[in-house]
Amino acid sequence: MFRGFLIEILRSAVESIKANKLRSLLTTLGIVIGVMTVIGVMSVISGYKQYIANSFSQLGANVLYVSKYPWGFGMSREEFKKIQKRENIGLREAEALKEYGTSFKYVSPSILRNMKMERGDKEAEEVQIEGASEDFSRITNRNVSLGRFLSKDDIVYNRYVCVLGQDVVNTLFTEENPIGKKVKIQGRQFNVIGIMAEKGKMMGQSMDNTAFIPYTTMTTFTGKRSTINIAVYAEEGEETREEIRWILRGVRDLKPDEEDDFSINSSEALISQFNQLTSTFIIISIAIAAISLVVGGIGIMNIMLVSVSERTREIGVRKAIGAKSGEILGQFLMESVVICLVGGIIGIFLGASITKLISIVSSGILFHIPIWSIFLGFGFCFSIGVFFGYYPARKASKLSPVEALRYE
Description:
- This protein is 57% helix and 17% strand.
- It has 15 helices and twelve strands.
- The strands form two sheets. The protein has a six-stranded mixed barrel with strand order 2-3-10-5-7-6. A two-stranded antiparallel ribbon has the order 8-9.
- A hairpin with a 2-residue loop joins β2 (107-119) and β3 (122-132).
- The radius of gyration is 33 Å and the shape is elongated.
C-alpha cells in the first residue's frame, strides 16, 4: 500500500518537473555547482594526497634526516632568519652519530649540489650530485641495477668514482655499457662503477637525474665546512630520534636550557603536515559548496512556492475528490527532493568530467572520486530538498478545497 503510494507520488513529481523542464533546470544550478565543487575538490585533493604520500615514501619510511633547516610548510620570516643563524651541520656530527649511536646501524652524510656532467661532446646539465657513504643505498632502499654502489674504501681513499642515475646514462651514453667509462664532473675525471635502478619522479622532479660520489670526494667541491644533511636508518622510531638528539646536543655543546639548533626530519612528518594543510582546504571547499547549495535551496523554495500558486486549482480539485493533506504534502515535497537529486546527478557527472580532464592534463597524478564524496553530495541534495521544500509543500497541503477551487 505504502509502496504504491510512494511510486504514485514520485511519478506525479516527475511529470510535474518534465512539464517545466527549463524552469526546473535553472532551479538546480545552485545545486549543480555545489555538488560539482564537492566532487571536483575532493577528487583533486584525494589524488594529490596519494601522489604526495607516494613521493615522500621514496625518501624512506624509516629514515630520519638531520639538517640545519626543518622540513615543512608555513615558516614565518622571523623563524627562518633565526634558523639561518644556526651553526652548520657538518661531518663531525655524522661521525659522532656513527661512533656513539646504539639504536641504529646505518648513518650517511648527504651533500647535495647541482653540477654539470660531461662525456666527450655530450653534456648533462643540472645533475643532482650527491656525496654519500657506503650505507646510503641501504638507508634509502635504493638499488643498483648494474655494477656496484660506493664502498668503504671509496670513502676512505677519496676515490673519484660515481654511480649514475638512469637519466644521466641516457644522456651521456647511448647504447654503451657505462661501467668502467670516464665522465667529467666540474672538469674532474670520475670512473663509473654502477648504475642505479630507476626511481621515477618525486614532486614532479626526476629522481634519476642524479649521480652518487663518495662524500669525502664531494668535499673537494664544497669544502669541509659547508652544511650537510645526515641520513639515519631508524628502525626504533622515537627511541632513535631521541638518541640522535642527545648525541648532537653533546657534539654541539648545547647547555640544558638551550633549545636544539638542528632539525630531525622525516617523510611521515611531511605527509602529516600536508594532510593538515589539505584538511583546511577540504573544510573551505565544503563551506563554499554549502553556500552554493543553500542558495540553490532558496531558489528551489521560491520555484516551489510559484508552483503551488500556479497549481492551486489542481490542489483544490484533488482535495475535492478525496486527496488527503498528507498526499499533497508528499507530492510537493517529493518534487523538491527529485529536483535536488537531479541537480546532484548532474553535479556529480560534471565533477567527474573535470576530474578526468585534470588527470589527462596532469601527467603522473591519478585523480579518483572518493565514494564518500558521492554519498556526501547526495546527502546534501536530499537534505536541501526536504528542508527547503517543506514550507511550500506544507502550504499546499493546508489549502482549503473551496478557496482553492475559487482561485483564478
